[in-house]
Amino acid sequence: MDFIKNNTNQETTIIIPTYYPGEKIVKLLQSISSKYQIFIVDNGNDPELKNIVQHYSNIKHYIVGDVGLGKSFNFALSNISSAYAFITQPDVTLFEGSIDTLVRTIKKYPNAAIVAPLYFEKNIYSPFDYYDLKISKLKKIVPQKKFKNLKNILPEGDISVEAVNSTALLIDVEKILSIGGWDDNFYTYLEDIDLCLRLRQKGYEIIKSPLSKIDHTGFSSHKEENKNKMDISRNWNFCWSSIYFCKKHRTQLFFFKYLFKITLKYLFKIILNFILNNKKKLIIYQIRFDACVKFILGKRFAESKWKKLS
Asked: How many helices (H) and strands (E) does the chain have?
């Protein structure tokens, strides 16, 4: 890589995937110490972003096209040489010293592949800070009852958890590469949970460090003018990724029941909202039903008519 190396930290690289983030990314960049090298993977060809990053000498900006998160992360890993990488999103702000704390923490646990900060949203501890996903002896997800009492108690010390999302996390690059990196089949959604499960299947740990914190403004990693396009993408890809994730990590019987159930569910919702003339919900369920059909046909988002509208 040809990062400017004077006075920069060579041990950890910052990776930020983007898709027309607008000025939101400035707050994130301002919260990152200039000693870190930043690797931006631009899924658009964003002239505004190009203008922003030219003011930062520690940023390397790559335009990769609209490839999604899994491929963005793998592209970055194939182009960095640091032992660790801190991955985050444009709508995140780091508390002071957060990355340094994570690096110190991961060094304490030789078996840790991921160490993540605590997630806050508007200074309130996020109920989605980490996830409970137990694995059976056959390395499949164990069905669990849904609990309404989400995470609301701040941990007092480092804790080992079952899964975290990719809002912000520090990874041991070598350990991630040892399992093949991210699964490129995930365009977005559940690529992070899939990574956590595969790491745990290999015996690695995922640690949460309460001494490191970030603030995240959910669903705001893009310009407001792109909201409708992103809503299409979210609905389609979350549905497709959920089916793919289920096929990959559940039993075959569970997968077929799940696919049959949600396909019929969305078809019924289309008919119902057509009768009720609820155009907004009708479009949402048409998008989700299309994702089910495309999955059955072995097709991706890029091959959907909805991609052209997103």
From this structure: 9, 10
Q: Which CATH number fits domain 9-216: 3.90.550.10, 3.40.50.10540, 3.40.50.20, 3.30.1490.110?
A: 3.90.550.10
| pLDDT tens, residue by residue, 19-48 | 999 898 999 999 999 999 999 999 998 999
pLDDT tens digit string along 270-297? 999 999 999 999 999 999 999 999 999 9
Report the C-alpha gap between 78 and 56 in whole angstroms: 22
From residue 305, alpha-carbon distances to 135, 137, 226, 231 in Å are: 36, 41, 18, 15
Rounded-to-integer distance, Cα 31 and Cα 225, Å = 25
The whole-angstrom separation of Cα 270 and Cα 47 is 39
**DSSP summary character for residue 145:** P
Distance CA 59, CA 2 (A): 10
- Listed in order, strand segments (DSSP E) in the chain are 9-18, 36-42, 59-63, 84-88, 92-94, 112-121, 124-125, 159-161, 168-172, 205-216
| Entry pTM | 0.89
User: CA-to-CA distance for 242 and 256, rounded, in angstroms?
Assistant: 13
